[in-house]
Amino acid sequence: MKKDLKLSDIPKHNVFQVPDDYFDRLPMRVMARTAAVEREEVTWQTSFWQRLRLALPALALLLLFAGIYVLHVPAQPEEQATNLTTVSDAQIVEYLSTYATVESSDFAELSSLQGQELTAEFMNISPASAAEELEYYRLDEIDY
Amino acid sequence: MRGCAVRQAQPLFVTKGTTKLLLIISATVEDKELLEKFAHPESRNLAYNQLVRKYQQKVYWHIRKMVIDHDDADDLTQEVFIKIWKNLENFRQDSQLYTWIYRIATNECLSFLSSKKRKFFLPINDITAELMEKVEASPDIAGDEVQLKLQKAILRLPDKQRLVFNMKYFDEMKYEEMSAILGTSVGALKASYHLAVKKIEEFLKQD
Predict the structure, then answer these.
(1) Helices B124-137 + B97-119 axis angle, to 10
(2) B56/B148 same-domain check
(3) Where are the transmembrane segments (chain A) (predicted)?
(4) Chain A residues lying within 8 Å of B16, measured CB to CB
(5) CB-CB under 8 Å, A1 with B146
């Protein structure tokens, strides 16, 4: 073979061959295959719609349950916190004085507040009642 | 299915003697006329048959030069025409029909070759070696020593460059046509072709 062979030296020639009458038969084969693909698609579409029709009642029922659940979902914790802010301090103090149990640790905490003024509103007690209470209890006898 | 129009391609049964006549008629039918016929349900199958006859050789040879094997080329050619059947209704005529058909054929070829590489976990060289072996051993490939060496040199090019080379060298397409099909600029195609020629000539010089 020539060492300095150029592309232009080589005659253009189709080296590939096809079976006899290949191009005479190809259109028929293409048409037959296209028809088969179309039939498959029609069958698939038909069976899809049939399956969808069967699945629709179950799907509707599922959506109904989901809707009911969403409507009755319990209130979020954030909402509860928000609601608490709407309650006045006086109502909170009243609630605590009625239901909360006072423990000695609470008194200990109270001692850390010495020197700070507790408002009358917070104490929820008149100066006269406070004096009465102080007279009744001898504070130096209480252990805490 | 109720309420839904179904179109099916029906094989047109013709005798062997009439096929050559149909081929000649189909080759002369204008693309515009084919598209007009295809748009009407009553003439759709006839138009499609004429389209297949008109473009079958161009599509087949375009694919064959890329995949080498006749059976692969045959299968891909049929796939291309099935895609044409499915999508011709939506063909917007922004481009020419033959450009659109070539583009489908090109995409089929490239995805076939890349899927083959993925499927067998083979590096590019092994696929090239497999195709070269086919060039040497296949009874469907006939040519002298130089012709076969040229085919092997072409196979050493990357797929897209091989495509560009085949379209320019064998199909003698204009760069503008190739640009419309491949979606690449004319300048890039020219550069790719000249590089391909250089690589091929380098290979031809080797023993």
Answers:
(1) 110
(2) no
(3) 54-72
(4) 21, 24
(5) yes
